From TrEMBL:
Keyword Coiled coil assigned: yes
Coiled coil: 400-427
Lineage of the species this protein comes from: Bacteria, Pseudomonadati, Bacteroidota, Cytophagia, Cytophagales
Swiss-Prot/TrEMBL keywords: Coiled coil
Superkingdom, taxonomy of origin: Bacteria
Protein name: Tetratricopeptide repeat protein
PANTHER family in the record: TPR DOMAIN-CONTAINING PROTEIN (PTHR45588), WW DOMAIN-CONTAINING PROTEIN (PTHR45588:SF1)
Stored Gene3D superfamilies: Tetratricopeptide repeat domain (1.25.40.10)
Amino acid sequence: MQRNYLYSFLPLLLLILLVGSLSKPEPYHLSESSSIRSVSMIPVCGLAHVGGIPNTLLTQPVALRSDVGQFSAPTSTKNEKAQAYFEQGMGYLHGYALIEAARSFHEALRHDSTMVMAHVGLSRAYMEMDDNAAARKSAERAKALSNHASDREKGHIDLRFAQLKAVDSLDNQKLLNEYRSKINQTVKRFPQDVELWLIAGNAYERYASGRGQGTSTASIAIYERILQTQPNNPSAHHFLVHAYEGMADYGKAREHGEAYARLAPNLAHALHMYGHDLMKTGDVDEAIAQMKQTDAIERNLYKTERYESMYDWHHIHNISLLALCYQYQGRMREAEQLVKERFMTERPINTERTFYNKMGYPALLITLNRDAEAVPIAKELTTGKTPGERVIGHYLLGMTQLKKNQLDQARLSLKAAQNELKEAKKAAYDDWLNAWLDPHPKFLAALIALSNPAEREKGLADVRKFQASAREQSGPDPWAEALFQLEIIAQLAYQLKLTDFAEESAKVLAQHDPNYPGTHYALAHVAMLKGDAATAEREQKLARQGWSKADAMFLTQNFARR
């Protein structure tokens, strides 16, 4: 079982508290110092933008909504609407709908301008928008109003500063340990606060910036224990989906994904999360249905609330995975429509990662053997504004040249991609390029070596490293992208008539996903190389059945007409 970011030892004090603390409700009391004031607009420290998103959007009024992941999270406010908006904001925050979370917290402040926990919520939302300066200012605003806060709420304020300090130095283990220690102390004081337990679960990820997407046995123990006393806590279910995906336990992840979607049917990310593991467990049709419903919720939101999808990071993520699901079924026209939309979408946040939006469309065109359309796009990317775009542009050109066995030209493209990667790493503020961008030139280099008889042994060794890495991918997009990467390797091995390696590669593809029609197609190719006509016919039939919804052009390209 693959485990990422594993921490095996949950601190004893935390575990003891967890076992005994959630069995009865906390007797929340209103703070004596709390008061109802006339409501006024609360400015966000005069900022025009937060994390690249216009402040006018983040402060835009919002209605109360149902079934978006809310759960009881008492505060000191005496205003019922402020409380309702705060809980709505927390549901959106835990569901990564950051714009709607910020709007809800601002709406809470319109009803109670002294509501400390709404500022705490804004601080958390802004941090997740990668704007720590704005997050700190909201935390300072909460601290300035701490005479209106209960002792428990003051504990939340202190945690904001501890986390932000640790996030500013993500590789500083001392600061991370100090943050975790402060969480333990706060939980010990207020063991009935479920939100503190959720924060604790997040904190036992690899980095202080954890928000429920990482994997650790400590986190799982916390979330599972919450569900023993609150079986309908949507956030605990959500975080467990991510955790079990990281453990490659997709059946367990699917169970929690179904629960999250059931408990928060109007929250786009809840339906999307369910789709993650429907795909991985073989129910691609239902995965597509969930992601299409996610897409409908989001597009309706943008239309009714009058803002562009470019400001919602989740929209690109959802249509990317939906496109991969369509590609899985050979529905290339539908996949192309979505990756082209992604290609056209600007990035207001983290513009250095523009390449993530740009690469899918030309890559799909190359897959469809429409190189004449892909090459001009790739060439344009080689002159892009960011180093990442230029890396991907040269990589894609190299892949088209490799298809034509133009190895010398492919090597030149590889060298250009490697040079641009060095520049990209100079400008990067952390090591994200190692995970996002670095593999592409290395993959091209391995395939070039595999294609050259003089370098084949090295190529085989490097390609096998990629196969092993692909098999370790557990996140939704990486898992699907790894599937198609493994398919490329199997196809190239067949084209080069490397019978033993083609068979080995088809088996690796089957280990990753035995249900994928392309797996059967690869197995059919291996049988052809070995002269096993009966097996080839059987596997081709299974591939055709799996691609029953595929486009006619896709089927024509992959199956010779009889």
